[in-house]
Amino acid sequence: MKLTLGKIADTVKGKLVGDPSIVITGISGIKEARKGDITFLANSKYQRLMKITRASAIITSRDLADSDKPLIITANPSLAFSKVVELVYPNHIGYPKGIHPSAVISKSAKIGKNVSIGPNVIIENNVSVGNNTLIYGGCYIGSFTVIGQDCLIYPNVTIREKIEIGRHVIVHSGTVIGSDGFGFATVRGVQKKITQIGAVVIEDDVEIGANVTIDRARFDKTVIGKGTKIDNLVQIAHNVVIGKNCIIVAQVGISGSTTIGKGVILAGQAGLVGHITVGDGAIVAAQAGVTKSVPKGTKVSGYPAKPHQTAKKVNACVQRLPEMYRRVKELEERIKQLEASKSKNG
Asked: What's phi and psi for 277, nearest 5 deg?
């Protein structure tokens, strides 16, 4: 298919500045792009690259539209570029179709229409899988679990018993949903396991990265709200409730019974203690240690986490400690000299 700049502009509903007949043969990042490629720029930090990129066209926003090259101006360049990727490389993966003969599926399981199940998948009793869902090889689906339609489960995912997964959910390889919550009671110096009999609910349009662990609740349910996106290597403990449209970045750890509001961002390696609340729209900066509840709409950072501006001031003081230490030592020496002089002069 011959792909022109005019067709791309129409597809992303952007304003074209330049020749609509220019043919686009590839897509690439702004640094790596060559003639014939289309690229994008969404961050003003890299605006200088618009002058030197070899790309034949750039998708960008109105605020950054300063280049001699042909431009497609959109409100969201990143999203527009994603649509172009789908246009240039449609169905480039080629998903498997049908049910592999090595899959082990209980007779009591209900499998919807157009479901694809890869090799060595195990589906236990009374599982329900919705229409058009794809389950890659090596996955395990426990008894009484429900998976909605149009889901994509990548290889070697474990979804244990009594899990509810909504529509359009993506789960990446190595993730475990429904592992036991970390609950023990000390009896005469010995750790005794507390049985975890609750469930996990994953709502519609959630994406869960690779090697994520989401523990089942002790009695009720652990909940991941609609539209939330979870990066790789995240730990979500029992009875955690996460609201809609949150972003949880790699290596975040959320302790048990914590409630996360709507639209919250937890940056990489943030750690949250249990039984606290993070309000709607709050932002927890990378590596923050959250030891108490965070009000809605606030940004916190540092350890223990505090309002971001306060944390920046504290960090600035810490950076000056070596110089302050040197000055204190100098002042101590001067005081000693003054005291010695005073004692000598009687």
From this structure: -125, 135
